[in-house]
Design goal:
The protein is an alpha/beta fold. The protein contains 13 helices and 16 strands. Strands 7-6-5-4-8-1-9-10-2-11 form a 10-stranded mixed sheet, with helices on both faces. The protein has a 4-stranded antiparallel sheet with strand order 13-14-15-16, covered by helices on one side. A hairpin with a 2-residue loop joins strand 15 and strand 16. The longest helix has 36 residues.
């Protein structure tokens, strides 16, 4: 071979390598409903081990301070679609209907050559837009035998019923799209979105008896009496003591199960239920609360266990198919959750357990394995991050920022040092007051302004270093006057920056 020919071959090989290196990364976003850091062992191994979720953390980055803008299912999803706060994307509460005609990140990805798919929980009322493929739960969706909405042969939405456990069905459908329905010559973005571990925490058949011989540790604030805060904390309706229903506790009901599933279910719960009901009259109030707590938390963790299995199946497929090295895997949830902290279940508050959500990112060759980050990041940043990963320009009207520099270990010098939060749904489930607030990571200022149709002007201020459980508000304490004033000023600045106006 002549020297010019050798050079041509060499340059051709280099060009091929550069072309491969420049291939846009695939994106797999795995999203759950109500999964808290306390139930993910990469964050907290005290209650459960989640080996597959931990794989993402071990191979990538764990974000330790990911805040949500509005701690409730649908609004969180709308923020992720749009990169905008609730008051701008129009979806403030779960009673809303998302306007899918507006700008969303999947539309932008699709316009730039990506294949887009969403499988599982949607919970935004309208038909998904911007996706080449969608197969989503109808409403909240049940844990067993879910009806799911997808595009029919004519392109219009059709509802199809399925038999089986919902977490496993969503996993199977996600894998089927990856294996059979996508174009292997194009980059893809898949959103695999689980119902679990949302209320009412119905485990898969194989995990119905898992944890039976274990006592889950009680949080130190399980017996909180709310004396150190304003009236809103004590007027909620989300306590383990009073507000878990017999259906939540698996004392009654089978939801959407078929006879074969009911048989397996009853075999797991009947004897335990009978023993509790027989002894209940002789139990103290504290013992009853402790029984309820164990029943609730174990069922919640059993649902998480199936999610972890699902994550493992997706990760395994990416490796087997040779896709892992060029696929960014991101895991998160729509918000955090209470596993008995403050005596509660559910979310909604700006208190830490529901204000923060898990966030894990694996990006081979880009994110250093086993790293952690404590910058203030948010679900407000997810849309921008997806676009940045894909090399797509981020629209100026999006309100978050790409996490790519942080994932690379290069936090911008002008990264946010404070964060704004706003919750709207009252009157509503669990009677959590409408409130907004600001945190700088060390201190947090919250304003509760409406509860059960009544106007409030209640303020709370917490020193998170001295009072990490947020039991004692120091609002009005002269020792915190300067901090209180600076946080109030920052709150007003952020409301102006995000064009909040008089939104209530």
């Amino acid at each position: 071979m002549t020297k010019p020919a050798l050079l041509a071959v060499s340059f051709g090989c280099l060009a091929s390598l550069f072309a491969q290196a420049a291939d846009p990364p695939n994106i797999v976003f795995i999203f759950t409903d109500d999964h808290c850091e306390q139930a993910l062992s990469a964050y907290d191994p005290a209650r459960v081990t989640t080996p597959n979720l931990d794989r993402i953390a071990a191979d990538g980055m764990r974000f330790d301070r990911c805040y949500v803008t509005n701690s409730i299912c649908g609004p969180s999803r709308a923020v992720i679609q749009t990169g905008k706060y609730s008051h701008l994307n129009g979806f403030r509460t779960n009673r809303g209907r998302f306007n899918g005609d507006q700008q969303t990140f999947p539309k932008l990805l699709k316009a730039n050559g990506y294949q887009t798919a969403i499988v599982g929980k949607w919970h935004l009322g309208s038909t998904p837009q911007g996706y080449d493929y969608y197969d989503v739960l109808k409403g909240q969706g049940p844990y067993y035998n879910p009806p799911m909405i997808t595009a029919g042969d004519d392109g219009n939405p059709v509802t199809r019923r399925h038999t089986g456990y919902t977490t496993e069905i969503i996993t199977d459908k996600s894998l089927a799209w990856l294996k059979e329905k996508r174009d292997p010559n194009k980059p893809f973005m898949l959103m695999c979105q689980h119902k679990a571990p949302h209320r009412n925490w119905m485990p898969a058949p194989k995990y119905l008896n898992w944890l039976d011989d274990v006592t889950i540790p009680e949080p130190e604030t399980l017996w909180d009496d709310y004396s150190g805060r304003t009236q809103s904390a004590s007027r909620q309706a989300m306590t383990v003591k009073e507000h878990l229903t017999s259906n939540d506790l698996k004392l009654t009901g089978h939801s959407s199960m078929n006879p074969d599933q009911i048989k397996v279910w009853d075999a797991a719960y009947r004897a335990k239920n009978e023993a509790y009901l027989k002894n209940r009259e002789n139990m103290t109030e504290k013992e009853i609360i402790q029984w309820k707590y164990q029943r609730y938390v174990k069922d919640y963790l059993r649902c998480v266990k199936s999610v972890d299995d699902s994550v493992g199946a997706v990760l395994d497929y990416l490796e087997e198919a040779g896709l892992a090295d060029n696929t960014v895997v991101i895991y998160s949830s729509d918000q955090g959750w209470y596993l008995g902290e403050h005596g509660w279940f559910d979310k909604r508050w700006m208190y830490e357990e529901s204000f923060k959500t898990p966030l894990l990112m694996r990006w081979p060759g880009v994110v250093k394995p086993g790293t952690t980050n404590n910058d203030m990041v948010s679900n407000l940043d997810f849309a921008e991050t997806f676009l940045s990963i894909a090399g797509v320009e981020i629209p100026a009207d999006m309100q978050g920022r790409s996490l790519v520099p942080i994932a690379k270990g290069q936090t911008p010098s002008d990264w946010r040092q404070s964060f704004y939060y706003h919750y709207y749904e009252n009157p509503g489930a669990h009677n959590v007051a409408r409130h907004f607030g600001v945190t700088n990571g060390r201190h947090k200022l919250i304003h509760f302004y409406a509860l059960e149709g009544e106007s409030l002007d209640d303020w709370e201020l917490f020193d998170l270093d001295k009072d990490p459980n947020e039991l004692h508000s120091v609002y009005g304490d002269p020792a915190y006057a300067s901090i209180q004033s600076s946080l109030l000023e920052e709150l007003h600045r952020l409301q102006q920056e995000y064009a909040v106006g008089d939104d209530r």
